[in-house]
Write a structure and sequence with these properties.
- The chain is mostly beta strands.
- The protein contains no helices and eight strands.
- Strands 1-2-3-8-4-5-6-7 form an eight-stranded antiparallel β-sheet, with no helix packed on it.
- The protein is globular and about 30 Å long.
Length: 96
């Protein structure tokens, strides 16, 4: 994902989808807007950071300090394992 304004101190961030793991809901080249001060719930689509890479995935389950995520396209989605809640940038609120 390309990032434009990923900062937790700002309420919104913009990203451009760069893979096919969330097809058909999110296509390569789509832009998404995240709300960064939102509570995350199961089935939300979120952007999170792992190292220097940003991922767009759907929340499957929330534990105490981890979130289990996966892509909508089971064939094309990479497995990332549990994600620390602190790694979440925000919840996707708009696609354009």
């Amino acid at each position: 994902m390309n990032l434009y304004f990923p900062h937790k101190s700002l309420p919104f961030s913009r990203f451009k989808v760069k893979d096919k793991s969330m097809e058909p809901a999110y296509l390569e080249g789509d832009h998404v807007l995240t709300f960064n001060w939102s509570k995350i719930r199961e089935h939300d689509v979120i952007v999170f950071r792992s190292g220097r890479i940003y991922f767009l995935k759907r929340v499957i389950k929330i534990d105490d300090s981890f979130i289990n995520v996966e892509g909508d396209s089971k064939k094309l989605s990479s497995k990332v394992g549990p994600v620390e809640i602190s790694s979440v940038v925000g919840r996707v609120i708009f696609k354009y």
